[in-house]
Amino acid sequence: MSRLIISLLWVPLLFSCVSHLNNVASSNQDEPEETTCTTFVDPFIGTSAHGHTFPGATMPFGMVQLSPDTGIEGWDWCSGYHSSDNSIMGFSHTHLSGTGGGDYGDILLMPTVGEIKTEAGSKENPDEGYRSRFEHVKEEARPGYYSVFLEDYKVTAELTATTRVGVHRYTFPKSQDSHIILDLKHGISDTARDTWFKVTADNEIVGLRRSSGWARDQYVYFVAQFSKPFTSLQGVKEGSLIDDAKEVHGTDVKAVINYVTDFDEEVIVKVAISGVSVEGARKNLEAETKGFDFDAVRKNADAVWNERLSKIEAEGGDKVQKTIFYTSLYHTMIAPNVYMDVDHQYRGMDQKIHKAEGFTNYTLFSLWDTFRATHPLFTLIAPKENNDFIKSMLAKYEQSGQLPIWELSANETGTMIGFHSAPVIADAILKGQANFDQELAYKALVAAAEDPRRGLDWFNSEGFIPVEKEANAVSKGVEYAYDMWTVAEVAKKLGKTEEYNKYVNRALNYKKLYDKETGFLRGKDMYGVWTTPFDPMKISLLGAGDYTEGNAWHYNFFAPQDINGLIDLHGGDANFIAKIDRMFEQEAVNDNHMAHDVTGLIGQYAQGNEPSHHVIYLYNYAGEPFKTQLRIRQVMDEMYTADRDGLSGNEDCGQMSAWYVFSAMGFYPVNPADGQYIIGSPTFGKITIHLDNGNDFVIQTENNNVNNIYISSATLDGKAFNQTYLSHNMIEKGGVLDMKMSAEKSTWGQEKAARPTSYAVAPSEANAVIVSTEEVFRPYITNESVIFNETTSVTLKDMTPNVSIYYTLDGTEPTSKSKLFEEAFILEKSTTLKAIAINEHGVSSKVSDFKFKKAFYQTGGEYPILAINYDKNATYNAGINGILDGVYASDNLRDGKWDGVSGQDLEAVIDLGQKEPLHQISIGFLENTSSWVFLPKEIKFFVSVDGEEFKEISVQNTDMPNDHPTINVTRFTTEVPTSNKYRFIKVVATPFEALPNWHPGGGNKPWMFTDEIVIE
Length: 1016
Fold this sequence. Notes:
By secondary structure, the protein is of the alpha+beta class.
């Protein structure tokens, strides 16, 4: 059939991947396509195992990611596609690349033939819905293009895209009953909250999908135009077909576009999206496409991708190596995503419509992952876009008062830890690339550094985060220390000396977590007592334990701002090298926690997750770069392949791939903001980086192969080069770095002058800048619990040697004139104990505050008896009398002292054995909303004389939060009328019916975690 011509903005290619070949692939599919960079990209890499990538069509940093969906629930379907599946439910226009959480999957189309089906159906039985079986051998994917043959309908589906428009080509068989399903309910792990469509022409539909998921409130408006007028159109609402529907609204809206098709008849559909309005989507459609020439769009996508990929030209190496390299480079440029219309309007963090003045607005900032290598890579190959990423971050700060942590479609998800917008912003400023308001940027950085949430209040006041006050305290502490360094360096750059001193001292706080006895960065409580028992192999997950998606091995080497200080903590170069060696020599297990992210193990080095990514390069700092070279080649060879399961972990919006791109070129940014790149072992004969300033930086190797992995000598622009690092300025200047490779390790780069250095504070400035203070910890008690039955003996101790401890028992603040602790004393009633420690120089600790409770609890005797009326959970189970055993649970939901309840009321009845005079009853509940743990909606307290008739004495209610609050324990307390004695107490807690729409699990049932019932 004839096709109209499309009008597109063509981007000229600056460099070719293979210089003697033409740049642009032919749009005529019958002609063989010439070899370009895109030829080496395989979008199927990462679609199996735990890579979480998608194979569909997108443009560099494009708003549209048009891709097939094979599944929409479960961890390995975060992108909507997994290679283990053999059926497709349709093609939606938004997808996440390599994330550890699912969302998007908006505006799904599916071509079908025969009986109309309005539900997707199951993988187990695709025939029950509009799904279709497919075979992987009949799939094809390359940058900007995807195709598959749908076996059940004998339809070939092809996809391509512009920045804001997805273009489909469906080749139908001859049929009286051909259809295209438009499913607006469909989404990946989210919930549709408002869907509608309107027919605006005989070949056009417009509408909206508004959803709640990881992005708690996401708008996707669309305009869909079809190359063939509809034969008829039916709407679907709540499963019911509506004939000749013109407009349908609801939360489960779909449309069925009906056709009569001839043999091999093509129907092309163009779908433009917008976060602003239908009008915005229409402007996008009109600006980026004219007519229905699918091949012209495909050809343009290929050309644009080839231009982008050609920024790094790899020569030498085989096809597999180039495939892994260019696919990795491709993956780094899928996100962040354009998030504005062609008229520069976009939805902001305040959900208002804004206009981006002088920049392109972006979304999807997976910063815990991408600050490490992806954004530093952008400073080399996409500095303009990186500036716009930062301008987008600053706009989000102005709209919400907060820099992005993990932002998605104008929603802050709060996922992961740290405030890693800071190193991205700082890197651009420190490299002289800041084409943005640096004073505004600094103001935003300070706001992030002073935000009291997420444990920062403790970090800033104590120098570390106590493990009982915040989950993942060690990981948060070391990452905050790094972020503080980046704030300090910007302050220094801007001449803010006093603030520089403040923040750079915070950058050294990681040292407070180093335990000389074990040789690890580990957790301790507010009294300075190390967490016990301690097992460096024990993995904890996001929201629980001392580490984030890892263990002590994974975080022991995270101080990129102060590697030399870290080396000193470990006792010098030899000890530091031996410690890294032992990391690789440990057993490759993940503690049976089924921590999906802790993958790609070599010993306890985990390439499949980010905390380990810089560790191999640390050998250079200690003088054994040959070990870096050996291990880098091992990881590249073992953890990256050209197969669908070719990634050892989540791709994570480019970080897993950016690691490979840097490492294959031969260097890596250990500190993502200090402008140094640590040299490893390049894999290609020649790499040319084409810089935006017109210069080229070339890395050439001699005798490079799978055996010759060691650098024996090097020159830079013909002069001997012995240092094992490069600076950003060296690269920007352009030049040629030549390396001779050998099968034998050499002494190259081992002397001190050749090593990179990393000090948070330069040794020459240390005396003037570093504030040394005597640390005196709060006193602690040796009691297992502050709850006691008859009497309790109290002993006070302190982790600081040679201190005197003073205390009060009347609730007043202790001083050096208070009672001196000399020996254990007895408490016989509920008492508030406060204590301080003072060292020989008169330096005082902060005040310890212990509220001892004389209470009824189960000590092994007959009474009190606890009876519960809820089903115990096998995993979150405090034991038979766990909520009446006299011991408080901690903030850690996995400490074994919580009873977890979901989908039911919690009812507990306590029989004291006889009538007692009571004063107060309380019960504790955990709030950890990221882990689906919410406070009860309602708590009721009852008392009874006989256990038959209960008197309600208190009702307390909570409100559903509209954001993730700090993890904490709330104790709900009621006073008991003292006019009577009671034998029985009953507590009833009622949960909220469902998680809120803003929550990633919106619509599912929340958990309640209950703690100790205290009866005084």
